[in-house]
Write a structure and sequence with these properties.
With 124 residues, the protein is α/β, with parallel strands linked by helices. It has a single domain, classed as Sandwich (Hypothetical Protein Aq_1857, Chain: A), CATH 2.60.300. The chain is 23% helix and 35% strand. The strands form two sheets. Strands 3-2-5-4 form a four-stranded mixed β-sheet. It is globular and about 40 Å long. It holds the Pfam family DUF779. InterPro entries: DUF779. This is UDP-glucose 4-epimerase.
Length: 124
């Protein structure tokens, strides 16, 4: 069974393809409360500086996007969310952060669920 920590909905994948076409390679960083609460922020790849205090949760393969889209989270936040599966979705409304989709009248949103023990074991 293939288990992932992060997936995207079809609507999010469509927006990612559109943003990729305009901005080039992309990345996400899961906000820990700055700007728009706890929202996934989308940036041009490398524009948000990650380091030793961040964890790469997934390299998202999005159909129609040439390269994987990195999904990062701060290590301290990951300690609290490590038992959670995240799904990147998109909803109407404008967020208050610096994410690339802000001018589009939509915003990325995280939907989460607790991973089952067998899913956790497959990830370890």
């Amino acid at each position: 069974m293939a288990v992932s920590r992060v997936d995207v909905t079809p609507a999010a994948a469509e927006l990612i393809r559109s943003l990729r076409g305009r901005h080039g390679p992309l990345m996400f960083h899961q906000s820990g409360g700055c700007c728009d609460g706890s929202a996934p922020m989308c940036y041009p790849a490398g524009e948000f500086r990650t380091g030793g205090s961040d964890v790469l949760l997934a390299s998202l393969e999005v159909e129609g996007v040439a390269e994987p889209v990195g999904f990062w989270m701060s290590a301290s936040q990951f300690e609290r969310w490590r038992h959670t599966h995240l799904t990147v979705d998109v909803v109407p409304g404008r967020g208050s952060g610096f994410s690339l989709e802000a001018p589009e009248g939509v915003r990325f949103l995280i939907r989460s669920r607790v991973l089952t023990p067998s899913e956790l074991a497959a990830l370890d």
